[in-house]
Each structure stands twice: as C-alpha cells, then as structure tokens.
Design a protein that fits this description.
mainly beta; SH3 type barrels; Ribosomal protein L2, domain 3; 30s Ribosomal Protein S19, Chain A; 7-stranded antiparallel β-sheet; 3-stranded mixed β-sheet; 2 helices; 14 strands
C-alpha cells in the first residue's frame, strides 16, 4: 500500500493574513459574551452597533440573512420583543430578539473584484453560458424567430414564459413580512445622500428619477431633477416631505390659452 496521508495535526500550518474585520479566538467582545469559532449569540445579548452576519429570520431555522462573501449587517435598535437591523442592501427591518446571529463580518470581501480571466474559470464555478432569446427559435423563446438579426417584435422585452422582463414587481403585496420592513432597499439616490451627509460640503445631486418620494433625509440637499429638457436644481425643505420629486420640476410650461393664436400651451 502507498504512504498514508499525514493527520491534520502533523500537517504544516499555512500562514494566513490578518484581516481587520476578523475577531481573535475566545476574545471578550463585551461582558458575558465570548466569541470563539462558530460562536453565535442572540440579539438580546448584543449591544447596539454590533456588526453581525448569518442572521436568523425564523427562530430555530438557522441563518438566512447576510451570508454572502463580505456581507455584514448592523444592530441599530432594540425595543420590546423585536430588534431592528440594517442589512447590507440598505433595508431596515425587524426580527425577533431571540433569533441568533454571528458576530463579525463574512470573509472573502474582495471576491467580486477578482477577474476570472477566461471562460474555463467560470465553468469550474458551475456558471453556464447564457444564450440570448433573440437568437433562439420561436418555439424556445418569445424573442426568437425572424430572418437574420430581427428585433424582438414586441413593445417590451419578456421572459421565456411571456412575463414582462423589466419593471414588473415580483413581491406579493400582502406578504407576511410587509409590516416588518421599516425601509426598503436603499436606491442609488439615497446612497448619494447618505454619502454626502458625511461630508462638510453639500454638492448638487443630479437625478433622472421623478417618481422618488422626498424623505426627511433629503432635507437641506439640492437635487437637480430632470424635466424632460434639462436638470432643474431644487432645494429640499421640510414642507416637501411626502411629495414626489417630479412635482417640483414641471414638464409643461403654461404660455397662454389655446384660443389665442399667438400663444400656445406646451
């Protein structure tokens, strides 16, 4: 028989780089809670501002939130039987205080910055090529068919099953967790505002979104809203909260009544 592999205790240990977000083994993070390998604690034992991951939604079901590489959530409030979390997507939601979570941040933060370099590297990860529907046959995809490079032949792109591919909301309106979500995922505009709040100087924020609702976080900022021709800068005050951005950047200018030939309404 060939030589047996050495035991894990006899194998030479590889040197690992120290990471700023990693916790030492068995170190006291706060009084009464010790952090060791694969150690979990409930949110009742954690102080506010704790960075956590692998969070339970349903008690006893196991971790479901903040499990991807580099993911980290933040415990921002505790009241009654619920704890308030800010998730990596920017969503703020409630969970039970008795749900477990792991302290710290998930490793491999820079995995999305890695360049695979070639198609074979993607194949090793189990990622198959994606075929466009427009090059398929009509029996395989609604976009398929036609002679040569034909367009999709529809007003809007659809999925292989005929549902709208862009803009359609897939979340149920009466989902059980609707009351637990205090704020939905942070959009691009809110991320700009949160970034400017950390700076002393406030720059003009340019946006194409007219349907966004003004929230208290926007007060004191100048937002340039597009009216179809140009971006009009609008300074946000407290009286605007609850209104849409498009209300303060009108797209129609009144230039007189239509019965007057010299004037028209555009």
């Amino acid at each position: 028989m060939g030589n047996a592999l050495p035991l894990s205790a006899d194998r030479p240990q590889q040197k690992t780089e120290e990471k700023p977000y990693a916790l030492e083994e068995a170190c006291t993070v706060w009084e009464g809670v010790l952090i060791d390998q694969k150690e979990e604690s409930t949110s009742t034992d954690m102080p506010l501002g704790t960075a956590i991951h692998n969070i339970e939604i349903t008690l006893g079901k196991g971790g479901q939130l903040a499990r991807a590489a580099g993911a980290v959530a933040k415990l921002i409030a505790k009241e009654g039987k619920s704890a308030t979390l800010k998730l990596p997507s920017g969503e703020v939601r409630l969970i039970s205080k008795n749900c477990s979570a792991t302290v710290g941040q998930v490793g491999n933060v820079g995995v999305n910055q890695k360049s695979l370099g070639r198609a074979g590297s993607k194949c090793w990860l189990g990622k198959r090529p994606v075929v466009r529907g427009v090059v398929m046959n009509p029996v395989d995809h609604p976009h398929g068919g036609g002679e040569g490079r034909a367009p999709i032949g529809r007003k809007k792109p659809v999925t292989p099953w005929g549902y709208p591919a862009l803009g359609r909301r897939t979340r149920k309106r009466k989902k059980y967790s609707e009351t637990l979500i205090l704020r939905r995922r942070t959009k691009h505009l809110l991320r700009k505002i949160e970034k400017l709040n950390t700076k002393a100087e406030k720059e003009i924020i340019i946006t194409w979104s007219r349907a966004s609702t003004i929230i208290p976080t926007m007060i004191g900022h100048t937002i340039a809203i597009h009216n179809g021709r140009e971006h009009l800068p609008v300074y946000i005050i407290d009286l605007m909260v609850g209104h849409k951005l498009g209300e303060f950047s009108p797209t129609i200018n009144f230039r007189g009544h239509a019965k007057n030939d010299n004037r028209s309404r555009r």
